[in-house]
Amino acid sequence: MNDDARLVKRLLAGETRAFEEAVNTYQSAMHAVAYAIVGSRGSEDVVQEAWLSVVRSLSGFQFRSSLKTWLLTITANLAKSHYKRNRREVLLDDVPSPHGTFDDDRFSPDDGHWLLAPYMWHEDTPEALLTENELRQCLEHTLQHLPQLQSGVLLLRDRQGLSLEEICILLDISLSNVRVLLHRARLKVFATVEHFEETGEC
């Protein structure tokens, strides 16, 4: 029995700790999906509704996908029903990119991974830890001020580890749009890191 099967069995048995584990493990990914589709105003409601839907339909889960994929699909479908007026496509020519071209040599054109990762601190001095905390706050501020689809795609790819194809399916946008959104978000994050390294300020 794999980890998903064990967790589902515990959830079906009504084990409170199992539900807490599921929330701790998957809540942030579900929130990232909801945020990318409906924005900050509706994302919390969508995630709460998704958990209710999960509880109601868990007995019908047939392990055709991973538990995470199933949860994110439920979340995405609910978010889309909340926001189905627009398809939310971001056309390549619609938004100018002041931070560089899509061919920026800091990222792989194949999978969008960093070719040259931002500098990271590995010192344990109080000063270094303080600087690291300040940079983390600065990056969180940058993420909060990205356009919601850019932020959502970045979180799903870099924090949750979803593939580009999975993001396409969940957000119902094309692969080229996912690549552009991810690229632009990473450029802004990279610019924040560079500015912080040069000035010590956000």
Q: Top keywords for this entry?
A:
202 residues, mainly alpha, Rna Polymerase Sigma Factor, Chain: A, Arc Repressor Mutant, subunit A, 2 domains, 65% helix, globular, transcription, WH-like_DNA-bd_sf, RNA_pol_sigma-70_dom, DNA binding
Terminus-to-terminus distance:
48 Å
CATH architecture of the largest domain: Orthogonal Bundle
Report on the biggest sheet.
none
H/E series? HHHHHHHH
What is the CATH topology of the largest domain?
Answer: Rna Polymerase Sigma Factor, Chain: A
For the record, what CATH class of the largest domain applies? Mainly Alpha
Task: Please report the number of helical segments.
Answer: 8
Q: What radius of gyration results from the CA coordinates?
A: 19 Å
Overall average pLDDT: 81
Count of spatially separate domains: 2
Short account of what is shown:
One of its GO terms (biological process) is DNA-templated transcription initiation. The protein is mostly helical.
